[in-house]
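FW: tagging you since you asked about this chain on Friday. Here's the raw sequence from the shared folder, copied in full. Didn't touch anything.
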Amino acid sequence: MPEISQIRFPGAQARRFVAAAMEKLGLPPADAAIVAELMTEAELQGSDGHGLIRLAPYARRIKAGGVNVRPNIRVVKEKAAMALLDGDNGMGHLVMQRAAQIAIEKARNCGVAWVGARLSNHAGPASLYARMPLAHDMIGMYYAVGNANHLPPWGGLDMLLSTNPIAVAVPAGEEPPVVLDMATTVAAYGKVKAKAQRGEQMPVGWMIDRQGNPLTDPKRSEEGFLMPIGGYKGYGLAMIVGLLAGTLNGAAMGSETIDFNKDHASVTNTGQAIVAIDPNAFGDIDEFKARVDKLVRELRASERMPGVERIWMPGEQSHAKRTASERDGLALSPALLAQLDTVAHDLGIPNLQET
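HL: got it, structure written out here
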């Protein structure tokens, strides 16, 4: 439950504030609006590690020249069912929205399409882009190389891999879509940053120190590293995602990855990929969605262990958070509001409360 000290704001107010900040930082109005929409959507769905908390670091990178505010995002390689985008070091939100649009259009013709991107930047939560094909009754898949290495190879100590997220969104009929959004580490580093900002401790199992002991203080996160999901299997998955989203696209991977938390000026050359699959190419779309509904209901109604009140589907809790946030407004902590006020002051724009 949200803390009493949290203050609520309508999503539209947050969009206006972020758009004003992005315009002040030099983005054209249309691009600023897209970034604001996607950052606010991240906050609405409960991805607080990738929402408004990212505005301050984005502003630092833009001011330091680490991001091109007027990029020429273009296709550099293309075939019927694939494309490779050069993001020209633009905001990742802009690059990946363009990638999703291309993938959806190609999937209409080919049944499936894969679009990769290089010279992109951090783009927020993976589910934002996996969900985009849902509006066209398509399945979406998203892969990315994270913007800082927080994971060593299994059994090692050198930070050579990132959280490298995966997201898959599957349309349903009467049920909410099934949306899996996960890092290949137990927790995304954005969640660590959110814990630190709120003054909270991390659960045991998120991180360990270099001696293998549990690390629960997020303010000491640089003393250790994130744990991969499923032990060595998560390490292997992180590597494969990085190869598909980074190496395949000519983007950064391994020691080439720039830690955008510390280096605000260097080009990150972030790699991402999105896949769109049109179920109509496999059969009747309504029948497919009805079968998804049937499976969801079977899983939800299955016998539960003692003390378990409900079996949740992937993405169901984010769907509920989005519904509540759209109804009641975004719940923002005093620490985040203070950070946003500092951004507003530095840019010379009205703060969120005044927007």
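FW: The first strand starts at residue 7 and ends at 9.
HL: agreed, and Residues 70-185+228-277 form a domain with the Ribosomal Protein S8; Chain: A, domain 1 fold (CATH 3.30.1370.60).
FW: great, closing this out.
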